Amino acid sequence: EKIKKWGVQTGGAGGVNHAKLGIVLAASGDFNATCTFYVNVFLDMYHAHSVYCIPINVNTTSANSDPHVIERIKQQTGIFFAGGEPESVIESLFYKNHVPSPALLAIKEMFDAGILVSGSSAGAECMPSAVMVWGGTGSSYNALQFGTYDGSEVSDRDYQLYDKDGGVGLLDGFIIDAHFSDRGREGRLIRLLSDTRHLHHGANWGFGIDEDTALVITNVGTENEKAEVIGYKGVFFADVSQSNITAKYNSYSITNVMVHYLTHGDSLFLKNKTIIFSSSKSPMIGFERNSRAMTSTDVFNTNITISHSNEPLPVHYPEFVKVANSLFDSKLDNVSYGDTYEHNPTFRVYMSRSWSEAEGYTERGQDFQSNDITSYKNLQVNITSLG
């Protein structure tokens, strides 16, 4: 909720009592209830000037060319894509063969002119032009075991599905996933990237945004395009451009995936991939607190307790995050690993900070009961099935 407040008050949507927000509810399965929720959030709680629930969804696709609707869209000072099912956004805002509707073209025109466009959950996943993840499908384990599939060809939502034609196309060069570490989605993003990077809309880079966290991208399309993390948790960045894959039925391995995890105040310049850690953080090397790194027997564990208090991070970290952070906080270990809880096969995730450019940075908690805010870059990840 604080991130939504930031969008109204300081994020470029117009400011308190001036922001006119258009809410894209195409992903939602309940238009009226979701509209009421966002009217309360943005109008009553955060004092926007007005909220317009754009009346386009899978049941009202004709509205995507309605001149009155398009004119109302153009009157807004900010656009917010609500959560739900990202594939419903595509069905609602595109014609056949991925041809954008007049409503989507209006949003793109406004975005190019500099208005704030944001999204939550499916509303974030649909932003890029690259292959679009179907957010509610597949787990990391299932993706590693069975692979990922074009949603137009496979309907079983136990598999990890994607749209090969991409999302709405506001951003280029990467895939976005959401609810990320909170649901143990590291494995599924890596598999999706590796399975689809050869496609026309494939990408070597993917971003996984944790809950209660935002990735703010500015100077879009320029050499200074920058992504900055704000919020309680972090954003996972995976690069498979140099990875090698061995895949066959019920067996999969990928080596040399480069991973970064950035937290509040950290930035990544998207063109040259330069990472700038927040000035509030300090290098961990030489100041590690633990002798050995952790390992895990449930590396994609999603059964975590989330704190919704004013603490800067959740009390209990997801397993992948804990193991990776502990590696950079270890005096003795340069490698660690985590296994999947599921067997037949078990997948092992190897993590290494041995590369010379691997670095961990942290903002230490005030005492041992407080949470450190830890970031890292250039963690090498290999995943292999053990049988």
Automatic annotation (TrEMBL):
One of its GO terms (biological process) is proteolysis. InterPro entries: Class_I_gatase-like, Peptidase_S51. CDD domains: GAT1_cyanophycinase. Keywords: Hydrolase, Protease, Serine protease. It holds the Pfam family Peptidase_S51. It comes from the Eukaryota. GO terms for molecular function: serine-type peptidase activity. Belongs to the peptidase S51 family. This is Cyanophycinase. It comes from Mytilus galloprovincialis.
